[in-house]
Design brief:
This protein is α/β, with parallel strands linked by helices. It folds into 2 domains: 3-94 and 247-259, Nucleotidyltransferase, domain 5 (2-Layer Sandwich); 101-242, Nucleotidyltransferase, domain 5. Helix content is 37%, strand content 22%. The strands form 2 sheets. A 5-stranded mixed beta sheet has the order 3-2-1-4-5. Helix 2 (86-97) packs across helix 8, helix 3 packs parallel to helix 5 and helix 6 (189-208) packs across helix 7 (228-236). 47% of the residues are buried.
Length: 265
C-alpha cells in the first residue's frame, strides 16, 4: 500500500504563535506533520502548509477524508470541515501518546490550561487562564527580552542558577518592571530566570488547586523550554512528563478526532 492510497485525516491547530498540522492514516499513525509561524492571513498560511506537507508525504488531497481545526484561530481555517476546542483535542492527543494520562498541563503562547481526564479518556473538567499573560509563553517572551535572551535560553540560564529569585508580580507589566529593578540591584540573570520559571509553575499549581491526579503530562510550546517540567514538578509535588513533540498534541488530537467525527461532539 502506498502512502497516497489513504484514507487520511488531518488536524490543524491554529495557535496564537504557530500553525501546526498533523495528518494521520486510518489507524491513527502520523503520516505527515508541519509547523509554521502564525500571521495575519492564517487561513492562507495554514493552506500553504497543508499543501506542502501533503506533497512531502506523497498524499493526494482527495484522499484526506476530513480536516478538523482547533486552537486559538480555528474559526479562521476555511478549508476545515469542522472545529473542535483545543481542550478536547489536547486531551485526545495526549491520551493517544500517554494512554494513562490523567492531567494535561498545556502552556501556549497566549493561555495556559489544566485539563483533567476521566478513566474513559474524556475531559472531566478543566481550568483555563486566558485573561492575562501570567503563566503563558508571552510572559516568558517578555522576561527573556528583558534579559536579552530568547525564551529557549531561559531554561539553560536557570539551570546555572544557585538559587531562584522570588518574583512577586505575575502580571506581565508589573513583573517586567520588577525584573528591571532586580537587574539594577545586581541580581544575577540566572537567578531571575530560575525565579520566573518557578513563578510560572506556581501559577499553574494555583490553577490546579489542592489535588492533581497523576500521571501529569506537559504540552504546548513552553514545554520545549528546558527546566519547565522540573519547575512544575516542584510546584505540583509530583512527577511531570513532557509529551513527545509537545507543540503538536493539539493538531494530533484534532486529526485523531477526524477519524471519529462523533467522538468530539
Amino acid at each position: 500500500m502506498t502512502k497516497s492510497s489513504g484514507p487520511f485525516f488531518a488536524g490543524v491547530d491554529a495557535g496564537s504563535r504557530t500553525v501546526k498540522i498533523v495528518v494521520v492514516d486510518g489507524r491513527g499513525r502520523r503520516i505527515a506533520v508541519g509547523l509554521v509561524d502564525q500571521g495575519l492571513k492564517q487561513n492562507e498560511i495554514a493552506r500553504r502548509l497543508f499543501s506542502r506537507i501533503l506533497r512531502q508525504g506523497d498524499i493526494l488531497r482527495e484522499r484526506v477524508v476530513r480536516v478538523i481545526a482547533t486552537g486559538y484561530g480555528r474559526e479562521g481555517i476555511a478549508f476545515a470541515d469542522r472545529t473542535i476546542t483545543e481542550i478536547t483535542c489536547h486531551a485526545e492527543g495526549v491520551r493517544h501518546l500517554v494512554p494513562a494520562a490523567a492531567t494535561v498541563v498545556d502552556i501556549g503562547g497566549q493561555d495556559s490550561k489544566l485539563i483533567r481526564i476521566g478513566r474513559n479518556g474524556r475531559v472531566r473538567d478543566f481550568v483555563m487562564n486566558d485573561r492575562c499573560a501570567a503563566g503563558t509563553g508571552r510572559f516568558l517572551e517578555i522576561v527573556a527580552s528583558r534579559l536579552e535572551r530568547t525564551p529557549a535560553d531561559l531554561g539553560r540560564l536557570a539551570k546555572r542558577a544557585g538559587r531562584a529569585t522570588p518574583i512577586s508580580h505575575m502580571c506581565a507589566v508589573f513583573a517586567e518592571t520588577e525584573i528591571v529593578g532586580l537587574l539594577a540591584s545586581g541580581q544575577a540573570p540566572e537567578e531571575i530566570a530560575a525565579g520566573v520559571q518557578r513563578a510560572v509553575a506556581a501559577r499553574i499549581a494555583a490553577m490546579a488547586g489542592r489535588r492533581v491526579e497523576e500521571p501529569v503530562v506537559l504540552t504546548g510550546g513552553v514545554a520545549l523550554i528546558p527546566g519547565m517540567a522540573q519547575a512544575l514538578e516542584i510546584a505540583l509535588g509530583c512527577p511531570v512528563a513532557t509529551a513527545p513533540d509537545p507543540q503538536l498534541t493539539g493538531a494530533l488530537g484534532a486529526a485523531l478526532l477526524a477519524r471519529e467525527p462523533d467522538k468530539g461532539r
